[in-house]
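Supplementary Methods S3. Input chains for the assembly prediction are listed below.
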Amino acid sequence: MPTANEPTLTLNPGAADGPAVAASGTWQVHALAQGKAMATITAFLKTLKGDNVKWDLSGVESMDHIGAQLFWNAWGKARPARLQLAPGLEEFFKRLETTGTLELPRPRHHRLTPVMKLGFAMLQFFEHMAGLTRLIGQVVLDSWRFIRNPLRGPWKEISANIFHAGFQALGITALVGFLIGVVFSYLSAQQLRNFGGDVYLVNLLGMSIIRELGPLLAAILVAGRSGSSITAQLGVMRVTEELDAMLVMGISHGFRLMLPKVIALAISMPLLVIWTDTIALLGGMVSARLELNLSPQYFLNKLPDAVPLANYMIGLGKGTVFGMLIALVSCHFGLRIKPNTESLGRGTTTSVVTAITAVILADAVFAIVFSGVGFS
Amino acid sequence: MNEQVSTCGPGTGELTLDGSVPVVEITGLWTKYGRTVVHQDLNLEIEQGEIMSIVGGSGTGKTTLVRQMLGLERPARGCVRVFGEDISQVGSEQLQQLRNHWGMLFQQGALYSALTVFENIAQPMRELRVLPDDLVRDAVLLKMNMVGLGPEHANKMPSDLSGGMVKRVALARALALEPKLLFLDEPTAGLDPDLSEAFVALIKSLHRELGLTVVMVTHDLDTLFALSTRIAVLAEKHVIALGPLRDLLKVDHPFIKEFFLGDRGRRALEALDEKTKTEQ
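Predicted structure tokens for the full assembly:
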């Protein structure tokens, strides 16, 4: 820049009445920020000692508030006894004299002992549980309203949600399901061959995919896809006050936002489970053909014998429950987002993590409850 | 967008900050969104030290024009020079320098919602990476004082602020690096009359004190009349009239007649006349 002469300070220690400091150049923030100007000045000010320094600012070409503040801080926030100013600089220091003593209030720090942290965590957990319970209650009430008057139900929202959460997830669930099927079949085949139990591959694959892996895979993918989008959608609606607008118009959140999502996921998740099961078994079949030379005909003929129908039903039931859980958890976290960007990001992360954890917990409950069902 | 045609010609490669060239110089600007033409052969010059207001009906591209000056939009054709430099051609280092010389007050404030008031205002200063912490702290407090915010607000989050406070904080942030050029997008929209009057007085005093050039988009006639030294009227995709308020009133154009001499305009003009009388 043509106007920016580097801000400099020169010391004249031998002046008649004590040391004198002369400033010259452009004392504006942009000049200060250039090159090493600031470092040089800071170093110079550190070496400066004694109170009785004469300050000569008549050589300063231009100044702004940050430059003035720099001098003011160097003077210890008071006008030095011997000061010479260039015309026009007076105004800056007058303002600083009136405001220079402002103090920043200390932010309050909460110091927590580990016990207090544990306590807060517990309280927060109970708060979440209470919130979730309330949400479930709301959804039940809204379903009752829906059942009593199905013609006025949120059909459009339900169908849109099924499209987004179900149909649009077909691709990714198929890809992941197929690859898991291939890998799982390949690894099992190698182990089974050691024991000469090649033919049991169908039992192993069918049982684990239909009863466990299919529903779990689909649920985890849907939690990542739809769970995060539900939370983010509700969060942004909170930020932009759309949620409040709905309330003002007398449109119930539960009936128009939560219920359709819960129903849509309860419908589309079992369908996705069927889809994932099929594709994963297909992958396993391909791998079995290549690895163990098991023909697809044999595979398909053996499957109904190896896997009793109850397992299939359990898988579908899991799908419905997981879908509803994911919708409820994501709605719960979506409604708790505060109107700022950080909360939105954190809320979405927590929502997905919690949804996946909840799904796995529910899976464990299923395993215990149905421990005696579906084994031939 | 298709290839752009900048008609600026070579620049000097240096920002000209001493006012020897217009602060903003727009020649033959075209802005297009797809097939919609927003600006067609638009010309505008803004001199140093003036307060230029841009007015026009909804959708005439006022905010887009400001975004063009800030380099947030690219011209489809034509030239936008800020401080004598072609904004679409400057190198990254110069652009950074340029950005330290202007400030923008967005319509909604655009405060960083995850940072406190203090951190919001300190952000541009810290971004320079040379200023020591205590200097930044004092400078932020000074800026807050300038826009009429006490230090007790420093640790609040933007979501806890009222509309007027958000505007003040945003103004303090826009002024953080002592810009030469200040853009204001609807500075008084959403403020109550008292607050908006106080805001006008604030901008007036800052303009006097810091020698700013101000470019302002506004719908508020009181603000417009109280602040602007010149007014540019956007209509029919270009600037149809440009000049001080008194000259504009003589222009015969339906939009200008409607805008300045409608009921609202008359009331605001009367108020302005009374004010100048009492001041004299």
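Chain B touches chain A at residues 14-18, 97, 100-101, 112-114, 118, 125, 128, 130-132, 134-135, 137-139, 141-143, 145-146, 151-152, 154-155, 157-159, 177-178, 209-210 (CB under 8 Å). The first strand of chain B starts at residue 5 and ends at 6.
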